[in-house]
Amino acid sequence: MAPEWGTLWIVGLMIAWPPVVAVLGLTAIGWMVGPNPEEEHSTVLARVSGLVVVTTVGHAFALVAGAILFVLVDTPLRYALYWAGYGDLITFDVVVFSPFFGVLIGALIAWTIPGAVAFELGRGRSPLEAVRRGFDLVSYRPRVGLVVAATNGLFGLVFVGGLLGLDILVRRVQFQRLRVTGFADGDLFLFVAGLVALLGLTITWAAVVVRLVNGADGLPVSSRPPIPVVRLALVVLLISALVMTAGAIRANEIRPVDTSPEPLPEDPDGLFGTAYDNTDRASHEYRFINISGETDEVVYEMHIDRQQRQLATNLDGVEQYHTHGEFAYGQPLPGYAMMTEDEAPRIGELSPDATNWTATTERDDEITLELTDSEDVFAAHGETSDALETDFDEPDVHDAWAEVTINTDTHTLAHGEYRLNVTDRAQSGQGIDTWNGLAYETEHETDIEVERPDSHDSSPTVTPVWRVVAY
After folding, report:
1. H helices of 16-126, where?
2. Does residue 359 sit within a domain?
3. Which one is predicted more confidently, 186 or 235?
4. Nearest-angstrom CA–CA distance, 178 and 442
5. Integer angstrom CA distances of residue 30 from 52, 132, 193, 205
6. SS3 assignment, position 274
7. Which of 128, 231, 307, 437 to pair with 222, CA 20 to 30 A apart?
8. How far is CA 174 from each of CA 3, 145, 177, 186, 416, rounded to the nearest angstrom?
9. Are residues 207 and 300 in the same domain?
């Protein structure tokens, strides 16, 4: 079930929330805990000014660190899901919303240091000493630092989980339109409820973290060992290399994709279903040809590259192009995930659930299957009800026939033809009304590559970001 946009708004607010908490909350808590007896009492203006600078710089650091943590954790996790065959779990909604949740939780974990610095500054310490004691928390009090980081991450997980649970509840009880004061929709309800929850959880979180930080005294300047510059540089190089590798994997769409076909069974129904699935899993081209007119006309074409996650369509001359970082006309959204979430848009193709096929011919590398019963042909179209009697009062079938050709080398569909013409005698006052019959062909070709249409330009700024995010 997809998160509502109201959930995304409140998560976006939470991403911007820590500086507000630090400036307002930590200053007040610092005074309540008590000023530092070794320092002169600073003025309110001095404390708040210092906190604004510290929290602004610290939050920028936390967001960058949160994005790094998200990429380092999310990339191997998704790669493992693709490798294990659970790629279907990564839906369009997961692709769109998870980066916000992931960066949020990572940024909260990274706020361990800025939060400690802000707290010490709120107590009245000098900016330099506050920064020193903040870094002491992770350098010389690592156990306390890990507990604070874990508490921050747990706070993020509880908040995001609560929001998603609230989102599901709102949608299930159909509170999309809430009549409380005038008129409000579900998005507004989620935003307000999320804001209330954010305030309550923030108070609890701040109290726990401040107690932990307040109990971890920093080391005197004379007792601090020298900074291990070489070791620190190696850690930075290692993290940079991992981030660049993960970013390259995501941007270039390097992931295990199983496009190998399943073996074809002997049963005609199983033969068609397996060939259909094999075609859907492969990179392929699909063409819908109208053969009911004077000339055969290609109405629709679709090209899909499963490995590179690209999809191009052409419907009566209107071209669209979708990738994992772009939706149609250069819009920065993961269009490939959106367009293929249920199945690739192959207009007019027979339903994969069509049954009662009969094998008619087998030659070289092809097998032909056929449907001749009018009820089977009607149901196989997949866009109407399962029975003629449901859609027509007194149907008189003039033509009902369907045929598909399967390539036994690639184990995929190669060609199809469909014809159906029905007269409904009960729909007209004259006693006869001919339904517009269907007559078309379909063609498939596998192992193709998709190219961007010449008429489409990509977004020069945002799309590359989505290429990294939408993995």
Report:
1. 17-20, 27-33, 44-83, 92-110, 112-122
2. yes
3. 235
4. 47
5. 15, 17, 29, 15
6. helix
7. 231
8. 14, 43, 8, 9, 43
9. no
Neighbours of 136 (CB within 10 A): 20
Residues whose CB falls within 8 Å of the CB of residue 372, separated by 6 or more in sequence, listed in order: 358, 400, 401
Kind and range of the H or E element at 134?
helix 127-139
CB 271 within 8 A of CB 288: no
Number of folded domains that form the chain: 2
Domain that holds residue 291: 268-446
Whether 179 shows a pLDDT value over 70: the answer reads no
Residue 243, domain member (yes or no)? no
pLDDT tens per residue across span 46-96: 666 777 777 778 878 888 898 899 999 999 999 999 888 888 888 888 888
CA distances from 405 to 275, 289, 301, 318, 453 (A): 10, 15, 19, 29, 30
Strands 284-290 and 177-178: unpaired
Residues contacting 90, CB < 8 A, separation 6+ = 78, 81, 82, 337
The pLDDT tens digits of the residues spanning 337-390 come to 888 877 777 787 888 888 889 888 888 888 999 998 888 888 887 655 556 766
The whole-angstrom separation of Cα 125 and Cα 38 is 8
The helix/strand count (H/E) of the chain reads as 15, 11
Same domain membership, residue 211 and residue 293: no
Residue 191 and residue 145 in contact, taking contact as beta carbons nearer than 8 Å: no
Say if residues 407 and 379 touch (Cβ distance below 8 Å): no
Up-side HSE of residue 53: CA atoms within 13 Å toward CB? Answer: 10
192 and 289 both lie in a single domain: no
Query: Is there a contact between 257 and 82 (Cβ–Cβ < 8 Å)?
Result: yes
127 CB burial (10 A radius; 0-12, 13-18, 19+): middle
- Phi, psi torsion values for 455, nearest 5 degrees: -80, 0
Nearest partner of 243 among 73, 101, 110, judged by Cα:
73
Core vs surface per residue 49-59: b (16+ CB within 10 A) or e: ebbeebbeebb
Q: Strands 412-424, 395-407: parallel, antiparallel or unpaired by DSSP?
A: antiparallel
pLDDT of residue 3: 55
